[in-house]
Amino acid sequence: MDLKLNDRVELKKPHPCGGKVWTVGRVGMDIKLRCETCGHELMLPRSKAEKAIKKILDGEGRA
């Protein structure tokens, strides 16, 4: 999966606050995600993050 900084992604399961849309804050071996609804941040290993992402919505380098 080709993730870039500031991409907006939709996860398969909603966050407890009800938000499903997250912003990518760091890309590498770990992926940092920030919930757009409540602002909660978390770091996941790349393998776990790629399984949790349903689709990439948009980002700076995308049309």
In sequence order, what are the helices and strands, one letter per element? EEEEHE
Distance between the termini: 17 Å
Morphology: globular
Q: Low-confidence segments, ≥5 residues, pLDDT <50? A: none
Helicity level, as a percent range?
10-25%
Count the E strands: 5
Arrangement of strands in the largest sheet: 4-3-2-1-5
How would a textbook summarize the main sheet?
5 strands, antiparallel
Average pLDDT for all residues: 91
Computed structural class: mainly beta
Percentage beta strand: 35-45%
User: Cα-atom Rg, whole angstroms?
Assistant: 11 Å
Number of helices: 1
Structural commentary:
The chain starts with 7 loop residues before the first strand and ends in a 5-residue tail after the last strand. A hairpin with a 3-residue loop joins β2 and β3. Strands 4-3-2-1-5 form a five-stranded antiparallel beta sheet, with helices on one face. It is built from one helix and five strands, in the order ββββαβ. The chain is mainly beta and 63 residues long.
Summary, kept brief:
With 63 residues, the chain is mainly beta.
Topology:
Elements: E1 8-11, E2 21-26, E3 30-35, E4 41-45, H1 46-52, E5 53-58
Antiparallel strand pairs: 1-2, 1-5, 2-3, 3-4
